[in-house]
């Protein structure tokens, strides 16, 4: 079902030509929703979510039994500019923590009944500092996209992608600024918690990167300003689009990866909902640009897929109501 990613054009074509949701399933789910034992619309957004999910799965009465959480890790040359409150060694240390089950995302994936996979991408070879040149070559971008593309289990029925990469709120801010315009300061936040001087320096770094790499193309922006784990998230979200696996987006970094796809192809994120709005300042603005209303707003600013994983239970609940509830006729309840 998934073509081999032999080159970047294969990726572009696969994304652009991916089919949309199954309209018959949407119709069937909409009809079923109208017959369930509740006042019309009483389950609010849960109803829309269930119908949306049904369409992408091609099943008017679907179930969620196999969610997958994938965490991608990468290192960033731009950390040499002092953009994070933490040192880059933390990336590999956190990967070990994920592998031993000790991180927040391990607990959240487990609570959501999701399997979790971790992919560390060339951690001992950080991307290039984007204030000096493109973060990645075309080959490096392709390899990272492919890592994400191949990491998606075609048997899964819901996908959350998360990231670990010290410094990666800087490339995410640069991507957002390059895609959406405005000033670097509009898109730059504190990440792991840089102080005021750190924020000013980070804003300068984002401005320099965006000034050096101007493009209208989402993939070129991803290559020049992104990072391996960001590209891998984009690759996985795109693969899920082709496989019709619904996606729950996580925070600022995940949304920046997704936004590159939306720039490449307008319907690229139709299979995705925003799991949450993170506390990273510009995340809300990115979601507005993407036309995505977050499901949760809990002040998280972690990444790792944490907000996406939390929202799995909301989507599961929506689908459980939709597919498990009795209709008025079945329950013998008067419908007016
Ligand atoms: C211990 C630790 C665990 C994390 N888990 C996710 N992040 C998050 O923080 C990083 C981005 O923030 P900045 O751009 O400021 O470096 C990413 O690794 C992101 O996943 C973490 C950061 C730390 C320190
Ligand atoms: O929004 C996020 O995903 C985020 C914010 C701060 C640090 N790491 C991740």
TrEMBL record:
Keyword Membrane: no
GO MF annotations in UniProt: nicotinate-nucleotide-dimethylbenzimidazole phosphoribosyltransferase activity
Keywords: Cobalamin biosynthesis, Glycosyltransferase, Transferase
EC number(s) from the headed UniProt entry: 2.4.2.21
TM segment ranges: none
SUPFAM superfamilies attached to this UniProt entry: Nicotinate mononucleotide:5,6-dimethylbenzimidazole phosphoribosyltransferase (CobT)
Domain of life: Bacteria
EC class of the enzyme, as a word: transferase
Keyword GTP-binding appears in the UniProt entry: no
Functional description taken from the UniProt entry: Catalyzes the synthesis of alpha-ribazole-5'-phosphate from nicotinate mononucleotide (NAMN) and 5,6-dimethylbenzimidazole (DMB).
Protein name listed in UniProt: Nicotinate-nucleotide--dimethylbenzimidazole phosphoribosyltransferase
């Amino acid at each position: 079902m998934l073509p081999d990613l032999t080159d970047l054009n294969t990726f572009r074509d696969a994304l652009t030509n991916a089919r949309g949701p199954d309209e018959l399933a949407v119709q069937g789910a909409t009809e079923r929703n109208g017959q369930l034992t509740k006042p019309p619309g009483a389950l609010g957004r849960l109803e829309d979510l269930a119908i949306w999910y049904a369409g992408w799965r091609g099943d008017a009465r679907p179930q969620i039994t196999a969610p997958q959480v994938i965490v991608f890790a990468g290192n960033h040359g731009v950390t040499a500019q002092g953009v994070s409150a933490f040192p880059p060694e933390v990336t590999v240390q956190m990967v070990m923590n994920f592998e031993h089950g000790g991180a927040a995302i391990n607990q959240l994936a487990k609570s959501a009944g999701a399997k979790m996979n971790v992919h560390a991408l060339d951690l001992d070879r950080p991307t290039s500092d984007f204030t000096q040149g493109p973060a990645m070559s075309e080959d490096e971008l392709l390899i990272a996209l492919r890592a994400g593309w191949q990491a998606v289990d075609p048997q899964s029925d819901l996908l959350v992608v998360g990231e670990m990469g010290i410094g990666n709120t800087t490339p995410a801010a640069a991507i957002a600024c390059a895609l959406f315009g405005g000033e670097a300061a509009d898109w730059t936040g504190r990440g792991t918690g840089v102080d005021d001087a750190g924020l000013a320096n980070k804003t300068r770094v984002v401005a320099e990167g965006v000034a050096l790499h101007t493009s209208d193309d989402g993939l070129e922006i991803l290559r020049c300003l992104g990072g391996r784990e960001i590209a891998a998230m984009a690759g996985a979200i795109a693969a899920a689009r082709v496989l019709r696996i619904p996606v729950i987006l996580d925070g600022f970094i995940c949304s920046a990866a997704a936004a590159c796809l939306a720039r490449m192809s307008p319907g690229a994120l139709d299979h995705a909902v925003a799991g949450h709005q993170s506390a990273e300042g510009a995340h809300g603005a990115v979601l507005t640009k993407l036309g995505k209303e977050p499901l949760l707003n809990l002040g998280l600013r972690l990444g790792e897929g944490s907000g996406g994983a939390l929202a799995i239970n909301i989507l599961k609940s929506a689908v459980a109501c939709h597919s498990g509830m009795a209709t008025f006729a079945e329950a013998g309840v008067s419908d007016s």
